Amino acid sequence: MLKTIPDEVNFLDCTLRDGGYYTNWDFAPELVSDYIATINTLPVRMIELGLVGKPESHGYFASVTSSKAEQVAAGLVVDACVMIDAKDVLASELPIALAVTRLTEGLEPGHITTVRVAAHYSNLAACRNIFGELSHTGFRVFVNLMQIDAANAAEVEMCLKEVTRVDTIDVLYIADSFGSMKPTRVQELIGRFAGRIEPDIGFHGHDNRGYALVNSVAAAMAGATWIDCTMGGMGRGAGNTASEQLLPLLTHLEASKERALLEHVLRHFDPLRKRYGWGSSAAYQYAGSNFIHPSYVQKLREGGPLSDAAIIRRLADLPADERISFANDKLSALMAQDTA
To answer: Distance between CA atoms of 259 and 96, rounded to whole angstroms?
Structure first.
């Protein structure tokens, strides 16, 4: 079965960005230097250093600049990218071009070759000028199509048509934002896009239902040539496809390099996992199966010693139209519910 996977699959490790949802985008310098050294030995094409333009109250990797990239990744031998949230641009009162310039201040092509844009599938058309501005500046443009599993057939078709109208997207990612997808759904979406658009196709998995690894394999089998992963699976909510599981499965990783990768995860990311508790669980599975934003589970766990059963009871009370987006006022109401 794995013989149907293309020979050239590119792996993007996004630990410092997606893992930052647990650490407020701060990581110990020793972890970062060891991470860069480990990545340099692996068949990884690109790493994501973090986000761009987030408030100062967030950590170091939430507002990455070119100078920061040069400092923390001076010895990096693979490409580097950063992510911007399209909402941060679309919410601005400034013209798109100026809003992009303000958001990416301190960022220029060089050490960072690529900007990923996280865009909700319903906002794809509105983001066209964002992609164009980034491309004009000299960046490669990757687009993470967020929450696409919640789209109906007509909405998916609308996204397909929109992508064919844009010539500034290099890679279009199908992002399993809710961790809701099954392998059949992954292959359906990847297959629909791969046969009709010019950009390469990528897949970004979340492990709410425990399917991140198998979904990543299914994506590659369906034609995706970019697959995301993180060390120890560290990422928002239940986390992502684990680098130490994915790379040995889909590449000819030497035994010595696999051991070094595992030791790196054990040394730096297992302690973080014990502290923050990401990973598939009953609560995350319920959230994934019902298109509930994963931050609700993550924040409810951080707020106190709630059992998965108690979390599920709270999530079940969320109205359907309030589940897909996270809001602090909704979280506060959930946390205030009686635990009886």
So the answer is: 47
